[in-house]
Each structure stands twice: as C-alpha cells, then as structure tokens.
C-alpha cells in the first residue's frame, strides 16, 4: 500500500475518533454545568479543555453556550468538532478510490450536517439533540467502514488510527480526573460527586457496562480499574491497546514484511504493562505518572509507525 494512502486512512480515522470524543465530553460537561450546587461552570470548562489536551484558543469566556458553540462549529480551529470532521473528509477525499461509496456518502452527510445553518440554529435551542445526531453519524460511518470495506491493510490502518487515538484520549481524560480518583474508596461522597463519577463513565460510554460488572456502586478504584485495565470493554485503554497491537500485526502480516523490531517492542511493552499490572499496584504507586507513561508510549508508537510505514526511506524499507 502506498504510504500516502495509509497516511490518509490513518488520519481520517483518528480525526473522527477525536471528534466523537469531543462530542461526548462536551455533552457531559454541559449536563454537569446545569447543577448549580456543584463546581462552577468555569471549573467544568477548564477540565473539559484539559481533557482535550489544552488546545489553544478555547479559553473560558464566561458564556457556556458561546464556548460550546465555538468548540463545535469553529471551522478555523483544528480542535473543534467541525475542524476534525473537515480534516477527516479531506483525508478521505484524497484517497476517494480506496474507500467504499457508502463510506464517502456517510462522511459527506456528516460534513454537510456540520455546515448546515439549520444545525447551528438547532444547537442554540437544543444542544443535546445535535450532539446525539453527531454521535449517531460517526457511529454509522464506523459501522459502514467495517461492513463495506475489505479487511485488508487499509482497514487495519483505520483500526490503528481509531484505537491509538482512543487510548491516548482516555489516558488524558483519566489524568485530568486522577486527583479525584485517588481518593480512598471508603470515603463518603456527596450526591454531586456521584454525578461527576457517572459523568466520567459517560465520557467513555461506560456507565452501563460498568454497572454490569460492579453494579451501580461507584468507587474511584473500580472506575479506574474498569477504564484502564478491562480487556473486554471497547473504550478501556487495555482493550484499545490490544486493538492497536492486532492492527499492527495484521498490517505486517498482510504486507508480507518482517515486523520491525522497534515497533513490535514498543507496542509489546505497552501491552505487557497493562496486562500484568494490578489496580492495587497502580494506586499504591505514581498513578499520574502511570497515565502519563501511557500517553508517552502512545506517542512513541505513532512516531515508530510513521517511521516504518509513512515516511520510511528506501534503505529502511529494504532493511525490514
């Protein structure tokens, strides 16, 4: 596969995953702002921006509605939802012949939904409806990708982008919430703190799944364990890293190339760290450092993937 094609498929997938993550976190933040007995709207906004990686130009202005509108519709800001969807569509346009007609149609519908004046008007009257529509449209694109595209190298690059972006985003989110999750489990908490814990799980679409495993008894250590180490939940970091590992192995297998040792070691190290560390060991040590380490390793895997599959030299291609 041409590196240009792999690059566009990878980034198309990452941008859509990033847009979905932003939609979910904004939805939760706006819901929590309605509770005037909890933290201030400014605190919620600053935490939301920190969870998105502190992109420049999205500072608190004192108006939650205006701030949310900028985060959703500012097409000139690369971290906005519109900016992510525009970038995903541009990447798809560059490799139009490599994706299915159904994928292109779904992405175009999402693009036109974002740029419709009707959507902006609806957003001002009912934010939740618009955010739900965006989530539905992104889920439809993912479903269409899985059912209309041959599961060859291109599809694996889409999965690689999706799961690497997801692992990095959840690690960033947990790092922001880590001071609250570090509280002792037996400590009694208020009703508002319970809402905040539900909000954290909802940011990862994890509330119902968590309740199936632990019931509705929310404790910080269980929440952290579920979002970090669960091997069966798609928005847990361990599951996402498993997805990255499988995608890289499949890319290497379908390409008929010997696995580059450095990349294999990088993903293997992160996979082993999540597979053989208990939540007790994480909480008794440097939890924030553990989460930061995950983010660093995700960035390292991205760099190695780029070195071996996107920006490789002829010499390095011949060497593997």
Automatic annotation (TrEMBL):
<dbReference type="InterPro" id="IPR051680">
    <property type="entry name" value="ATP-dep_Glu-Cys_Ligase-2"/>
</dbReference>
<protein>
    <submittedName>
        <fullName>Alpha-E domain-containing protein</fullName>
    </submittedName>
</protein>
<feature type="domain" description="DUF403">
    <location>
        <begin position="1"/>
        <end position="309"/>
    </location>
</feature>
<dbReference type="InterPro" id="IPR007296">
    <property type="entry name" value="DUF403"/>
</dbReference>
<dbReference type="Pfam" id="PF04168">
    <property type="entry name" value="Alpha-E"/>
</dbReference>
